[in-house]
Amino acid sequence: MWRSIFLFLLISGTLYGPTIKAQNLAVTQAFAEKAFLNGRFATALPALQRVAFFGSPSQKAINYFKIAQCYQATQNYALAQRHYRLCYALAGDSLAREALLGQVQLWLWQGQYTAALKEITAVEAAFSGTERQRLFFYKALAYFGKQDFSACEEAFSQTFLADDSVSFAQVQDLLRNDRRLHYPNSRLAQGLSYLVPGLGQFYAGDFESGLNSLLLNGSLLGLTLNVAYTYTVLDALISVLPWLQRYYLGGVQNAKDTAHKELQNNQAEVYLEIITVFKVAQSKGQINIGLDPD
Questions:
Q1: The dihedral sign for the CA sequence 45, 48, 53, 58
Q2: How far apart, in whole angstroms, are the C-alpha atoms of residue 112 and residue 156?
Q3: CA–CA separation, 171 vs 31, rounded Å?
Q4: Residue 212 burial by CB count (10 A; 0-12/13-18/19+): exposed, middle or buried?
Q5: 193-230, pLDDT tens digit by residue?
């Protein structure tokens, strides 16, 4: 009797086991897809990993891609890069290129502009159509991050279609003529504060800090001269001059940092204006680079 039961179970497992496994994977895949589409990445992740582990090579590829997107959404960039590479190793041409675009996007998000450009240069010959538009869009953003605005303009010119000259002219005008891309200059701010304390902050637009630096350093200079006149130069050098030197050099560094921060803010404004031009062009069907309309 037990022998018959054992044989029945063995035959049932052989005949129906693969079907049951496939059904379980299908259910798991559907659950993962629903969670992924609803933005519940932490919930989707283990389900996607299960299907990727037990599934076919094609299932592994697409699920590695979605796993990478989950890690990207939760800012785990190292694991996102790893799974984009796993996807690329298994996927066909189209999905493999999407995985490469995902890797490039990750480098941009992390501010690794040189790494992004290296990746783009290695693969751009294999891209065409809208995928090539996206690749050159990312290339332009990488050059923008490196503040190489002429190379940025050239890459953007490869993103727009030939008949979309109006949109490109808008981007071109921003990159060539908008002074916010170069103002304020942190070295100039630093040099001005060496000449007159607070002048660099005034130049960078921080009038409160500039006034404080001017008054504080002026007061300390006056105190230094007063001590030197009332007592001795040595007394002034020992008691007051170190404080004057500290606040003088601190003001110089503050002017440099203030100008650099203001420059970044100005460039961010121009960047957003450029993105707006692309969003408008995309809404009109002139380009398709996957920008979120919101």
A1: negative
A2: 19
A3: 43
A4: middle
A5: 999 999 999 999 999 999 999 999 999 889 889 888 88
